[in-house]
Amino acid sequence: MSLEDQIAKLDKDLRDLIVSWERFFAGDLRVPPRAENTRLSNRLRALSGKPKQRRVEQFRLEQLQHRFTSYSANWERMLREREEGRGRFGGSGAAVGAKPVAANAAGGSSVDPNDGESLYDRYVAAKREHGEEVSVGRERFERQLVEKQKKLRARLGHDVRFEVMVDDGKVKLAARKQRRTGRRE
Questions:
Q1: What is the pTM of this model?
Q2: pLDDT at 117
Q3: Which of 148, 159, 172, 183 has the fewest Cβ atoms within 10 angstroms?
Q4: Is 96 helix (H, G, I), strand (E, B) or coil?
């Protein structure tokens, strides 16, 4: 295979890899295409080590390397943001694999004024869905929630809201920084 054909194949493979990463970030793929990323990186490195025949081939190969490097850096940044729960992946701070079930409004009440369903109801539903026993009643749950909220407000200096999370198959409550209306923090 000529060098020109190899460069054309690398270009096509890079376009395919871009599509795979986009599918991953859109949620169509469960696992990031890191193996394909590594293979393409190795092929680019191997081809760049060979002596070039013409300037045009050298230019195209360098252009491919720069595009690949830029995309790779962007993908790694997006993965990091996703794992930290920042950027376009939300401010929940949840790790990859942790799935928010629903959120509630802060302010002592566990009822979300937007949907009328209490946090307790969502917590119980998530527990049952994952085969876990519910060992706390509504009143005790809400009392504990208010106590936790007060402690966190005192420690952190801002209000928190709670959401039901499913992480590694276990249902948990997670406290998140309460955003103020009209302003992002």
A1: 0.47
A2: 64
A3: 183
A4: coil
